Amino acid sequence: MRQIIFLRHFYVVLFFLITSCTDHKINYYSNETPKINLNKFFNGKLLAHGIVQDRSGKVIKRFKVDIIASWKNNVATLDEKFVYSDGSKGSRVWKLKKIDSNQFEGTAGDVEGVAEGETAGNAFYFVYDLNLPVDDTTYVINFEDWMFLMDENTLLSRSYMTKWGFDVGEVTLVMTKIQ
Questions:
Q1: Coil/strand/helix, residue 155
Q2: Which long-range contacts (CB under 8 A, 24 or more apart) does 97-106 make?
Q3: Contacts of 115 (CB under 8 A, 6+ apart)
Q4: Where are the beta strands (DSSP E) in the chain?
Q5: d(Cα 159, Cα 146) in Å, to the nearest integer?
Q6: Does the N-terminal peptide bond of residue 133 adopt cis geometry, omega within 30 degrees of 0?
Q7: pLDDT by residue for the chain (179 residues), tens digit each?
Q8: Are 105 and 99 in contact (CB under 8 A)?
Q9: Are 134 and 116 in contact (CB under 8 A)?
Q10: Listed residue (17, 53, 42) closest to 124, CA to CA
Q11: C-alpha–C-alpha distance, residues 7 and 9, integer Å
């Protein structure tokens, strides 16, 4: 009898956990303005400032990124130079390919496979697996980026990091066009 009651409670809790998860979709932002145009925003010099938070919300790193972005045909190159609050530096070069009017694919040296992105309204949704070095180990972390165009010169980005479906942290970033 105890096992039946336990299983009944287990399935009720599992049902609520599954049904309470929201299905955040890019199309929700279709009517939001200003409309994002990646060709226009990711063109020229950009400056970004951000924070990295662990899964508890504690800020574990601050950083600045200088970005030079340009397009050739339907491919953008985003050359990113990072400077972190602990004095360390890094870089990443994204190749962002426009597949159709609102679909994109991206690659970078530390990205596993191909990133997938989509725009709608003022939003850009971008998912990828990143090789993230921590101490002497490199972890493959799933990134789910939500970027929102605030005005023609400002983009706000929230990145949710997961490993095996578990939250491991977040990145918040503000990008500003400077040229």
A1: strand
A2: 98/38, 98/39, 98/74, 104/38
A3: 105, 106, 107, 108, 126, 127, 128
A4: 44-54, 59-72, 75-84, 89-98, 103-107, 111-120, 123-134, 137-151, 154-163, 166-177
A5: 6
A6: no
A7: 555 555 455 444 444 444 344 467 999 999 999 999 999 999 999 999 999 999 999 999 999 999 999 999 999 999 999 999 999 999 999 999 999 999 999 999 999 999 999 999 999 999 999 999 888 999 999 999 999 999 999 999 999 999 999 999 999 999 999 97
A8: yes
A9: no
A10: 42
A11: 5
What is the maximal distance between C-alpha atoms in the chain? 70
CA 113, 48, 155 angle in degrees (round to 5)? 80
How far apart are alpha carbons 57 and 170 in whole angstroms?
A: 8
80 and 92 Cβ atoms separated by less than 8 Å:
yes
Rounded to two decimals, the pTM is: 0.85
Q: Read off φ and ψ for residue 39, nearest 5 degrees.
A: -60, -35
- 28-177 folds as Lipocalin (2.40.128)
Q: How do the domains of the chain map onto residue ranges? A: 28-177
Q: Is 73 helix (H, G, I), strand (E, B) or coil?
A: coil
Rounded Cα gap, residues 177 and 165, in angstroms: 34
